[in-house]
Amino acid sequence: MPLLSVRALVRLLNTVEPVEELPDATGIAFDSRSVRPGDAFFALPGASGHGIDFAGSALERGAAFVVSDRPHRRGLLVDDARGALLALGRAARERLSAPVIAVSGSAGKTSTKAMLAAALQARTTPGNLNTHFALARLLVDAALEDEETPSGGAPLVLELGIDHPGEMAELVDLTRPDHAALTAIAASHLSALGDVAGVAREKTLLLDRTPGVTVAAADAAAYLGKETLERTVVVSVGRGDKALPAGARASVVGVSAPLADGALLTWEAGGERASATLPWPGRAMAQNALIALTMARELGVTTAAAVERVRQARLEPGRLERLRLQGVTLLDDSYNSNPASLEEALAVLREAPAPRAAFLADMLELGTQERGAHLRAGELSRGIDLVVAVGRASAALLETNPEAVRAVDALAASDLLGRVPKGATVLVKGSRSMGMERLAAAIKERAARGTWATTEATAEAAAVEPC
Question: Which residues is 157 bridged to in the sheet?
């Protein structure tokens, strides 16, 4: 029976036949703005409203019908609309025959997901869609694709993100991954998770409950229980054998060396050495790549094929993205920040030739560790030619780096771009809600106007301009 036939949904969701005769659906949506013709629109309760208020808009966009806990003449009435969407996601997962691989971690999971999807030629979500409902929709889309592909679809790589206790168990129950990778365990979302030990309890659950291949970065593997570690491949880049916890099934040790436009990753696994030239800077990106390469190799992809595919992976913007602009180099790491990812980003900045500038905005959701994290950021940023601390929490940075200057927000920070010297490498980083992508955009605009252009570059540009 088709997954989204009205008959199948009535049975799955334990509801009654609709008042009106309804067409079968061809997809699902839970945001009326993203409804596609033929979608079943799940009208969910929200913090400040209810999706049923947008049912009319969804139907105008071509929705086949509505599923909600509020009655609608063109709807299926259920007791719990959110639960119904997740039940549908679980039912879709049951229908998938190709492997499902999950990626999680306190940093690097979106980039690793993209690299792994490329290595496996797999399906995946765009961006960092990693919530229950987004994953349920992806599972449904994949199951519908497979209905049209009798031989089965491509593997599915998912990103699992959490910010409160119990969430990983729910995501694992929904997605039931066959294989899993863990990129990092570090201070993140501490307001809800308490401390790094709380982060570890949540994150390691993914590997504990995944039956197939498990791969973990060495720092994360240190938190694994004995039984999980014994069946896990541990990956380390740039920290040597000393970083490896004892008792793992296998280990892969790599080293990264900076290149002008990326990094050279070399590693050894099972007595064999291999290397790859990567288009991304830094040790952390190299480790993300090695996790993806290791998982791909464990799942039967040759090293040569995996390397070539990973090199072609398209990463999301704002994740330590190095952009050569006119007169400056931008390290755009504006998507998010926590203490671990900040340390990695500053290391990449220091690898660049002087002059260097860093615009460092607040790291949020750190609970009682917020002040200490920003004091540490000040220590790490000493000696950089220009450091701008952006936001309320970042004021503490100036206590340990008195040479830094302060801006209240990203807009105010843009007023300080005049202090960035020509030829500088500029790091932009901050928690998501700090909006540092606006500052990255301002840098791109100024560079395009020639603000930092050298005399030679200006003359060269003028020489090629049409008369």
Answer: 101, 124
